[in-house]
């Protein structure tokens, strides 16, 4: 009897260890969806997103977003997966990441950023959500591990569509205040490590805050909504930059390439789908 209990305990510990994953800064946390399942989920989500959105048909922009993304991936804490960076043609002023390293940005946001440091700030923030597996954690508690596994194995088309919508919803507005602060913090750490001026993060927050919440649409992950409030994010970012990145904060923000590329964006931007 004692032996059985011991082996059950040993099995439980083994199971927990196999689920422990490493997040930003090497922090451990429990995720019950394996990396393979997460990658498969990301793939299913991506397929669905591509049928419901217009992907920007401009390889110059797609390659540029990919280049900035990959330079940040190189210095991040999760390099065991392949990342994918995709520009969606839409007037929405937003960006989001889904499980498995899929990062999306809307042309509406690209149209409003002023330099490469700001683009790097958005991208590094989204990569940090992937590193910390925020969306997987939210999804596994929202829909349950069983259903997520079914979707990962491609067995349930209608559930996939529902969960994709939920997943994008989670990625756009479902993160907790703590998740957002974590993504902000590591976003700055990663962008600075990749050589970008971290002031880009502050400029980005200020620009988005100045737009107001406009009926709670068109806001970078609901940045201006109540959680967490923009000023708190700006204060935290300022604190981190002045304590660690004073030198790198003097670097150029690289405006020329973005301002040239912005002329390539389709105008007027297409209406957002209801
Ligand atoms: Zn976020």
Give a written overview of the molecule.
With 274 residues, the chain is mostly helical. The chain has one domain (32-262). It has helices spanning 2-19, 35-52, 59-73, 107-110, 116-131, 134-143, 145-152, 157-174, 177-193, 199-210, 230-244, 256-262; strands at 20-22, 28-30, 84-88, 95-98, 102-106. Helix 2 crosses helix 7, helix 5 packs across helix 9 (177-193) and helix 5 (116-131) packs across helix 10. The chain is globular and about 60 Å long. Residues 214-218 have low confidence and may be disordered. Bound molecules: zinc ion. Zinc ion binds next to helix 5 and helix 9.
The fraction of residues assigned to DSSP E strands is 5-15%
Described by the principal axes of the CA atoms, the overall outline is: globular
Helix content: 55-70%
Low-confidence stretches: 214-218
N-to-C CA distance: 61 Å
Adjacency order of strands in the biggest sheet? 3-5-4
Number of helices, where a helix is a run of at least 4 consecutive DSSP H or I residues:
12
- Rg over CA atoms: 19 Å
Bound molecules: zinc ion
Q: Largest sheet, described in full?
A: 3 strands, mixed
Order of helical and strand elements: HEEHHEEEHHHHHHHHH
- On the 0-100 scale, what is the average pLDDT? 83
How many domains? 1
**Total strands:** 5
What class would the helix/strand composition place it in? mainly alpha
């Amino acid at each position: 009897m004692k032996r059985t209990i011991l082996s059950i305990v040993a099995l439980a510990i083994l199971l927990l260890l196999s689920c422990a994953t490493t997040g930003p800064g090497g922090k451990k946390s429990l995720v019950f969806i394996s990396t393979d399942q997460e990658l498969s989920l990301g793939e299913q989500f991506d397929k669905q997103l591509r049928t419901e959105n217009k992907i920007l048909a401009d390889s110059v922009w797609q390659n540029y977003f990919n280049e900035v993304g990959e330079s940040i991936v190189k210095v991040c804490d999760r390099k065991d997966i392949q990342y994918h960076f995709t520009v969606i043609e839409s007037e929405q002023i937003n960006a989001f990441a889904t499980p498995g390293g899929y990062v999306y940005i809307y042309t509406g946001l690209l149209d409003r950023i002023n330099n490469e440091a700001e683009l790097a700030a958005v991208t590094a923030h989204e990569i940090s959500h992937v590193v910390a597996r925020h969306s997987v954690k939210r999804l596994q508690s929202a829909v349950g591990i069983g259903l997520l596994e079914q979707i990962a194995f491609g067995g349930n088309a209608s559930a996939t569509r529902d969960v994709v919508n939920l997943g994008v919803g989670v990625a756009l507005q479902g993160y907790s205040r703590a998740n957002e602060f974590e993504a902000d913090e590591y976003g700055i750490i990663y962008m600075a490590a990749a050589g970008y001026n971290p002031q880009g993060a502050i400029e980005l927050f200020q620009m988005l805050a100045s737009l107001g919440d406009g009926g709670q649409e068109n806001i970078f992950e609901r940045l201006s909504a109540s959680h967490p409030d923009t000023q708190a994010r700006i204060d935290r970012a300022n604190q981190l930059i002045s304590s660690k990145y004073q030198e790198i904060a003097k670097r150029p923000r690289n405006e020329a390439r973005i301002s040239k590329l912005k002329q390539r964006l389709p105008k007027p931007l297409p209406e957002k789908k209801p």
